Amino acid sequence: MRNCEILHVIFTYDIACQYYKNFWDRMRKLPEYLHLNIPPSNIFFYVPNFHLPPHKDDCHGPFSLHFAPGVGMSNGEGIEQNWENSNGAASQTKQMGPGSRQDTLDDILGAHNYRKTLALRRILLKRMIEALKEAVKHRKALDAFTAGLESAEEGLTAKWAKEEEEWQADKRKPCPYRVVRKGKTMKDIELELAREEFEVTASNVQVVHESSRSMFVVLGLEIEETQRSLDFDVRAKKAATTYQELEFQKRRNELNRKIDRFRALQDIYMPALRDELQPEQVALLKTNSKKDVESVKLYLPSALPAIKRANACAPGVADIEERLRLGEATDALETLRDGLRMRTVTNCFKIENITGQRTNTRAQGIQHQIDLKIHASKVRYRYAREAYATLAGPGPWANLLQVLGDEDVRALNERALTAEEKAEEERMRDGGFLNELASGGVAAAGVVVTGEGRRTLSWIWYTGAAGGMGEREQSAAANEALRAEWCKGKARAARWREEIILLEEEMRRSIVSSQYMASTWEQRASLRAATEPEGGEELPAELAEGLAGYAFEHAATARARADTLQAAWAEVRGKARVVLEGLDSGEVVNVTVGTVVEVDENEAGERGMYEELQG
Description:
Number of helices: 20
InterPro entries: KDZ (IPR040521)
Distance between the termini: 31 Å
Largest sheet: 2 strands, parallel
Helix content: 55-70%
Pfam families: KDZ
Region (Disordered): 78-103
Number of strands: 4
């Protein structure tokens, strides 16, 4: 790039978030002739879409191509898309000499490039039709969302747009696309408790018991979660096979050993528990049923009234459970949100890409597993909230950790059912333990997929933090979630508009490139004839005719390709100009593209990962 006039560079790399940090320091250490004549502010580093999700949350906003102006729907994975065709060359060429290996690789990659060139007519046409539809759809959704926000508070979206523009200029500022998770996770609280106990232990001369109060409570919470999971699986498989029964029994045996350990710790940290229980409860506490170990009651501090709790527990045990229950509720809400996001993405992918009975059956199985995760998170939250309410009592926390109804468990693109819809849903149900999982898709119990015009966010998307949040703080949290959603909608609309512009330019360049190649081959037809050969002898007439024929054949092929592309893309390019004018003027218009995308099985083109990543 050092000899080219380049205004901006978009650099994608799987670990660009680390590579960019020392990029310019390393550049200064290179020889002078290798320095780039591009200002650092004009080079942008991003992580390809497929490789970004496993990165830390701090990387998702600044290094996402979805939020990068000017890139359209580029995914950054183009360098890896030919591996499907070239991976086999590793075993084929490992015993070849250097020359043979190079020739073989040239043949493989040359064939891939030729198939891609032939497939451009179909690929770019298909992508342009998709871009026109998506650009109009996302712009209308953004306009509807913006109108709703502006009706509530005028100037709000302009403020968010300015914040997003400032963030694009300086990524050190708070990311407008990210909802900062408030409060502490359960692991954070466990770490705090461990540090506190370490400080107490270090300050005491006497040797304390090797077990800690926090470990006792954490073990109880883990047993409760395991009990719920086991009970859920057992009830879901009423006609279990012998193998499944064996697995259940192994899990019961392991759970029973944990309960025995818990009881030993309970005698230390809840020494007067038996004095506060009824005789029948003490009997259950002692017998510890081996058959239905998943239903054994543990009697943690939250299971006792306030007076009995104070008498039964050692000092500080109830406070530790209160802190851990808060973290458990926060964790359960976050897991619930992750499951709802996963359900939305999976369902959209299924609708767009899955056809046929076999693949649909597999997709439904995946969706069912996601629904099970959502259900488990919902139940865990309800248990944690109920226990926390018993320990903490009424307070401002109830504005954050609200009661979770079935109608609240919905994704960002779902709305609650109306009374009539809910009555119809109940009428259609047959009953049973897993009723709420019967749909197996996005439209789960109490929710339905809808457009931007009728959608409202469930409280789970803007609450769930620790601490006493009042109405003002809760409103701020709601605004933060709405801001992130609006900024993402704005980014989607902008990326699809840019995709139209980039595809139009790719189409223009493809036509011009073929025309240029045609002219080049026509010039080559007479090039050898006009050049005096070595030794002064003229070219034989047969050779001159053959060379000219070869050149004219390639020229005709290139010119025919240019004419074919120009004719195939004429309609869609005209519609693209109409759509862009509407998007720029604010008068969004629907377009109908009559061009049929022909699929030629001989044109392999790009398949696989790229088409999936486009979504």
